[in-house]
Write a structure and sequence with these properties.
The chain has helices spanning 22-27, 45-70, 73-81, 150-155, 209-216, 219-223, 227-232, and strands spanning 2-5, 8-19, 83-92, 102-107, 113-117, 124-127, 134-136, 145-148, 165-168, 175-184, 188-189, 207-208. It is an alpha+beta fold. It has a six-stranded antiparallel β-sheet with strand order 1-2-3-10-5-8. The two termini are 35 Å apart. The structure holds 2-oxoglutaric acid (AKG) and fe (ii) ion (FE2). It comes from Rehmannia glutinosa (Chinese foxglove).
Length: 234
């Protein structure tokens, strides 16, 4: 998958899908099925796959810690059986003088979880919880940004909120970033019963992740301030 997005004129995106094999993932920390693409004839897969494997381990480590804190490890293991990952490589070119410096509009991710990596060129900004300021992320070769997507918020009954973020291209250097996004396939995601009580009434109906993404691309989904709430909120 490769191409330019009309909404983000100065970006070019490549995607690489990797698949966790459900049965093996029980005995191995991470396992993969086949890769689905080559990049413009170049076999891009080895390095990208090695990178993905590493980041998938990080994703699962973080999610196991999070689910342990909430006492929902078994529920997470069930989701893991049907998790697939998308590695996205994004190139942001330097905008020309008559273009805006916006690289990606403010958004929350439609994934379950996202892990972002950028070595040295700034641009990613994260909105503060009060919604009044943007924090500029200082990139480093040894750090990763782990962010919840909309689907994680629904799964945790609103406990873990996705952060609104954007990319602004300043300066004269082009920027490459890598994002690994997790998606839950072929399973209705339900709030674990451990996360529902009198103080925390059920906020989301069971829903399918891919159906949610489909909804997001409808007119109603695009117009909604919080599409996940519009789609399956109670
Ligand atoms: O390039 C970045 O740092 C952020 C990318 C991003 O937010 C996305 O792909 O959803
Ligand atoms: Fe994002």
């Amino acid at each position: 998958m490769s191409g330019k997005s009309p909404s983000y004129p100065c970006t070019k995106v490549w995607g690489l899908r990797t698949q966790i094999l459900a049965k093996e993932s029980r005995s191995l920390p991470v396992s993969y099925g086949h890769l689905e693409m080559t990049l413009s004839g170049i076999n891009f897969s080895d390095t990208a796959l090695e990178f993905s494997k590493f980041v998938v381990k990080l994703d699962q480590l973080v999610m196991r810690m999070v689910s342990e804190v909430y006492g929902i490890e078994n529920n997470y293991e069930t989701l893991l059986d049907t998790t697939s990952y998308l590695l996205r490589l994004i190139k942001y070119r330097v905008p020309s003088k008559d273009e805006t410096s916006l690289g990606i509009v403010p958004h929350t991710d439609k994934s379950f979880m996202s892990i972002l990596h950028q070595r040295q060129v700034q641009g990613l900004e994260i909105k503060t919880k009060n919604g009044e300021n943007w924090i500029l992320v200082d990139p480093s070769p040894s750090s990763f940004i782990v962010m919840a997507g909309d689907v994680c918020m629904a799964w945790t009954n609103g406990r873990i909120e996705p952060s609104t973020h954007r990319v602004i291209m300043k300066g004269s250097e082009e920027r490459y970033s890598l994002g690994l996004f997790s998606f839950i396939k072929d399973l209705k995601i339900q709030v674990p019963e451990e996360l529902v009580d009198d103080e925390h009434p059920l906020q989301y109906k069971p829903f399918g992740h891919y159906e949610y993404i489909h909804f997001y691309y409808t007119e109603e989904g695009r117009k909604s301030k919080c599409p996940i709430k519009t789609y399956c909120g109670i």
